[in-house]
Design a protein that fits this description.
This protein is of the alpha/beta class. It has helices at residues 15-28, 48-60, 101-112, 135-147, 205-221, 265-282, 288-293, 295-300, 314-326; strands at 4-7, 32-35, 64-66, 74-78, 86-90, 119-125, 153-159, 168-174, 184-185, 191-201, 227-232, 239-248, 252-258, 304-309, 330-335, 341-346. Helix 1 links the parallel strand 1 (4-7) and strand 2. It is globular and about 60 Å long. Its EC number is 6.5.1.4.
Length: 355
């Protein structure tokens, strides 16, 4: 079977191209070569999180892999079969990285969904780090939405992990599917409730309290009464985090931000509330991150998936381009980049191979 060549510098040119290519290669058992990996970044090539993605995807598909070394700008990946089972991966194994657990799972979950048996994946690293989906988003928004497409999972946050020390621990159980069904989320319905967490580690409890109080005050002024839990996260190093989950009649959306040295607790809360309110006032169903993360699943589902989103991200457009290198799918994006819009994707109806 001919190897598919993917230009890793295309579009936004980040690690998302690599992760999408690995997922699709593993799902379809099509060999792929990704070159110019993260070419435009200040630290181009494979960083530890990307390297873990390559090796983890290689393990679960018994793939032949070349180029899997730190800073590599080209990898070849030749999967043989999807093998379910119990797996454990550590982003921090070689370089003490707080690389994202969520991004590693982003590459693995679609592959393991089509394994011949149930799987468990335990990943160590950063659970709440910048530029990646935090655990709470992965669990409360992505996995919950995927259940509507027929994928049943269970996840647990055993240990939090913040930048730069990491040390987090997440476990996910994935039941195999015969196939996924398309999803229609054009209308979100009315807002049912807003819940969330305000967390700190090795910082005064008053920081979490200030974040909660600020968010509650601002949302109350909008007529929304949130339920926000304060958490002492008990992780390595220092950190703070806030996550808000907006549950509508037909879908759910998530919004989060991290604290940093010199950033007041009130600013942390403001950033999350601003995200939530921008989305809420758009009247669209899905937040931009979920819209981006669903496209791979939509491309392999049976029938059409359609949804509105408050933000058409560069990641979404780039993901659709990567998918088109592997599959002949019909899709339509209505709207401008960074603005609201509608996504329609007719999936190929991928079925799990028996035997």
């Amino acid at each position: 079977m001919d190897e598919i060549l993917i230009d890793g510098s295309h579009g936004e040119g980040g690690g998302q191209i690599l992760r999408a290519a690995l997922s699709l290669s593993g799902l379809l058992l099509r060999p792929v070569c990704v070159e110019k990996i993260r070419a435009g970044r200040k630290n181009p090539g494979l960083q530890q999180q990307h390297l873990t993605c390559v090796r983890a995807a290689g393990v679960v598909t018994e793939a032949g892999v070349s180029g899997d070394h730190f800073s590599s700008d080209r990898i070849s990946f030749s999967p043989k079969t999807i093998t379910g089972g119990q797996y454990e991966f550590d982003v921090s194994l070689e370089r003490g990285s707080a690389g994202s657990v969520g991004l590693v799972l982003q590459a693995l979950v679609p592959i393991l969904a089509f394994a011949g048996q149930s799987s468990s994946a335990r990943v160590h690293g950063g659970t709440h780090v910048a530029w990646s989906p935090p655990y709470h988003y992965f669990d409360k928004v992505l996995l919950r939405t995927l259940s509507m497409m027929g994928l049943q999972t269970r996840s647990e946050l055993n240990t939090w992990g913040f930048y730069p020390l990491g040390g987090g621990d997440v476990a996910v159980d994935i039941d195999p599917v015969d196939g996924l069904k398309g999803l229609r989320l054009i209308e979100r319905g009315s807002l049912k409730n807003v819940t969330g967490v305000s967390a700190v580690t090795n910082l005064p409890a008053s920081v979490a309290q200030r974040q909660r109080l600020r968010a509650s005050k601002r949302l109350s002024a909008e007529g929304i009464k949130p339920e926000i839990e304060e958490i002492d996260a008990q992780a390595k190093g220092k950190g703070s985090f806030m996550f808000l989950l907006a549950e509508y009649e037909n879908c759910c959306c998530g919004f989060s931000t991290l604290g940093s040295k010199g950033k007041p607790a009130e600013q942390v809360a403001d950033e999350v509330v601003d995200q939530l309110m921008r989305h809420h006032k758009s009247h669209c169903a899905l937040d931009g991150n979920l819209a981006d993360q669903l496209v791979i699943y939509a491309s392999i589902a049976e029938g059409e998936t359609s949804y509105t989103t408050s933000r058409i991200s560069e990641h979404l457009i780039t993901n659709l381009w990567v998918i088109s290198q592997f599959l002949s799918i019909n899709y339509r994006v209505e709207g401008e980049a960074t603005g609201p819009g509608t996504i329609e994707i007719r999936g190929v109806g991928l079925k799990r191979k028996s035997g």
